[in-house]
Amino acid sequence: MRLVHLGNVVVDLVLTVDELPERGGDALAGSTDRATGGGFNVMAAASRLGLETSYYGVLGTGPFADQARVDLHREGIDFPQPQRPELDTGFVVVLVDSGGERTFVTSPGAEATLSDVPETDEGDLVYVSGYSLLHAVNRETLVRRLPELAGTVFFDPGPLVGQIPAEALDVALSRADWVSCNAREAAVLGGGPAAPRGVIVRLGPDGCRVGDELVPGFAVEAVDLNGAGDAHSGAFLASLAAGLEPLEAARRANAAAAIAVTRRGPATGPTRAELDAFLRDSGGA
User: Fold this and answer.
1) What is the pLDDT of residues 195-210, one digit of tens each?
2) Which end of the chain is less enclosed by CB atoms within 10 A, N or C?
3) pTM, rounded to two decimals
4) How many domains are contained in the chain?
5) What was the pLDDT predicted at 266?
């Protein structure tokens, strides 16, 4: 079993500022960091837990694409799609103020030019991100191809779910075997089509709900909430692939997210050894 990721890998440029500049103003960054992000975070979380992982999105050519390739290689993630020679991978400027609030500006690149999706197998776990449905080319391709793809489809609508065109959202929800979202996103989805098998609502430190079942979270001292949802999704998928039942997979996903928030950075999901040790220390394997 493998994870086939159809989302977008980008590079995050993270700048810390005391406060956002007013319109037409200027600000000096206290620190600057550059990290591969977007869909990379889920894939890294799954791969670290032993799940074979492939990125089926598009990489470009240029410094951002070079960084993404290095990081994908490091995590053991393959990327079989042809690269775009005329476009670099996109980037996201992330402004973090003194209160920890994050403001994002995205510049799309090669990842927004997905024109086809190779065939998938019945044993595949196919990850679809709501961000992909915001880019016209990707959206057209996924609306056309999703109903034809084999495997178990996992859909994360993301924080911009309210901006996804209704037709594309309906196709994704109708094809999804699993939908994973936080409480705010679940409220936006409201009475839309239900996923055929399962809905996961992530509740932060309180854990998550799988259908009507509450799976409790773990008490930790959080230092960075960025990437917790991605660690949760990656661990849930890796656990399903390992043959665990959904509620036990959700418990391991809660633990992975708890570990992730104790570390700074976006792709901070644990290894399998770290996750197993955390669960043992928390009172169960």
Assistant:
1) 446 999 999 999 999 9
2) C
3) 0.93
4) 1
5) 83
Task: Tell me the C-alpha distance between 40 and 68, whole Å.
Answer: 8
Render pLDDT for 132-178 as a digit per residue (tens, 0 to 9). Answer: 999 999 999 999 999 999 999 999 999 999 999 999 999 999 999 99
Residue 179 lies in a domain: no
On whether the CB atoms of residues 231 and 265 are closer than 8 A, the answer is: no
Whether 70 has a pLDDT exceeding 90, the answer reads yes
243-281 CB burial, b ≥16 within 10 A, e <16: eeebeebbbbbbbbbbbbbebeebbbbbebeebeebbee
- 65 falls within a domain: yes
Count Cβ atoms within 10 A of the Cβ of residue 76 and give its class: 0-12 exposed, 13-18 middle, 19 or more buried. middle
Q: Of 154, 92, 147, nearest to 129 (Cα)?
A: 154
Paired strand residues for 215: 208
Has residue 119 been placed in a domain?
no
Write the CATH number for 99.
3.40.1190.30
Collapsing DSSP to helix, strand or coil, 226 comes out as coil
Q: What domain range includes position 98?
A: 9-19+29-38+58-112
Classify residue 252: in a domain, yes or no.
Answer: no
